[in-house]
Amino acid sequence: MDKKIYFASDFHLGAPNYNESRKREALIVSWLNFIEPSCSELFLMGDVFDFWFEYGKVIPKGFIRLQGKLAQMADAGIKIYFFKGNHDMWVNDYFTKEIGIEIISDELVMERNNKKFYLHHGDGLGPGDTKYKFLRKVFRNRFCQWLFAVLPPRIGLFIANGWSGSSRIANDKKEVFLGEENEWLAIFAKEELQKAHYDYFIFGHRHLPLDIKLTNNSRYMNIGEWINYNSYGVFDGEELRLEYFNPKS
User: DSSP E strands: which ranges in 98-209?
Assistant: First the structure.
């Protein structure tokens, strides 16, 4: 495998404000420039945006530099996947039509170089968080989405941006390691291993870079977020690594 596969999540573009988001967008584009020569596939694993909703002919303004860079990479033959997160679950077909990005609604199971991967944003998995799991079903319900789409975009985006402002990222909430026995995505991964073997489980959503050995031949990696860590995963055909982007190094 001459080229590499990259995984990143939780850019939360749009939060906590325009200026900070623009700086982060520029950093992310710099990272994309850095990985592009070695990249065969790019997995954007949810919450790329702190809020996203596609109306029939309207999308949230901004983020044009990221979209332009992704379009350029896709045109160059790099396969790009976009996972729906809990903040951008209302992505529909805009990025597919305009850029050629494949949208993933839930999990993706795949094999690369005889390694089996289980990929998911991470929201709604594992024990607990029953309130969000209920809300996730409501937010993903087509009728509920239609009701929201009936609102004029100015009103709908105002409501959504207010909700987005209460997010963990917008409030700079720092996450701490809970111990392997309490990390709900590690618990979920161990339960899945009882059903089938996976070499790697890769999630976002947790906002904390983690690399946990589940068994002798299975690992759980959380690829973190891009406000505090600038972390990402990279698979070179032999090994999956958790890395951090420092444009000054």
Answer: 102-104, 108-112, 115-120, 200-203
What does the DSSP assignment read for 29-96? Answer: HHHHHHHGGGEEEEEE-S-SBS--B--SS---S--HHHHHHHHHHHHTT-EEEEE--SSSTB--SHHH
CA-nearest of 4, 5, 9 to 225 is: 9
Which pLDDT tens digit goes with each residue over 224-246? 999 999 999 999 999 999 999 98
Domains of the chain with bracketed CATH: 4-244 (3.60.21.10)
Tokens 């992505």 locate to 91
pLDDT at 74 over 90: yes
Per-residue pLDDT band for 156 (boundaries 50, 70, 90) equals low
At 79, give phi and psi (nearest 5°).
-80, 130
249: which residues sit within 8 A by CB, 6+ positions away?
none
Token code pair at residue 53: 């909703």
DSSP state, residue 13:
B
DSSP 244: E
Distances (CA, A) of 132 to 51, 124, 192: 16, 7, 21
The confidence score (pLDDT) of residue 90 equals: 78
Count the Cβ atoms, other than its own, within 10 Å of residue 137.
Answer: 11
81-115 pLDDT tens trace: 999 988 787 788 999 999 999 999 989 999 999 99
